[in-house]
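Translate structure to sequence.
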């Protein structure tokens, strides 16, 4: 998955938006104002193809153990709830990256009040 595929996939989620709230090179994806994915464009240009995604704490540990070279505690994020994922790692296929993005999006939506979740999840 390249940066444009990552961006397109994130923006394909219902009501997903992109923003640059931290600095000009950090692209953030949100749903109804809640962050579900981010990455550094500067790092991508330098060859570090990693993204930060929210994750259920138990699944986060599972993924880190199963993919120790591609999934790490979230860089500059709450290590319990966020993973940094190397998207071009040899073990991680595009479908699995999409699964992780879906999980992050759905986790963020599931924490919203019921009235705000309507229309965001199937």
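Result:
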């Amino acid at each position: 998955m390249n940066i444009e595929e990552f961006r397109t996939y994130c923006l394909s989620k219902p009501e997903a938006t992109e923003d640059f709230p931290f600095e000009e090179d950090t692209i953030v994806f949100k749903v109804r104002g809640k962050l579900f994915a981010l990455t550094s464009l500067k790092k991508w240009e330098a060859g570090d193809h990693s993204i930060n995604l929210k994750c259920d704490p138990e699944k986060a540990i599972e993924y880190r153990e199963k993919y120790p070279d591609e999934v790490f505690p979230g860089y500059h994020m709450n290590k319990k709830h966020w993973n940094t994922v190397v998207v071009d790692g040899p073990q991680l296929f595009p479908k699995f990256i999409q699964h992780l993005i879906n999980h992050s999006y759905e986790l963020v939506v599931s924490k919203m009040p019921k009235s705000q979740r309507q229309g965001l999840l199937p």
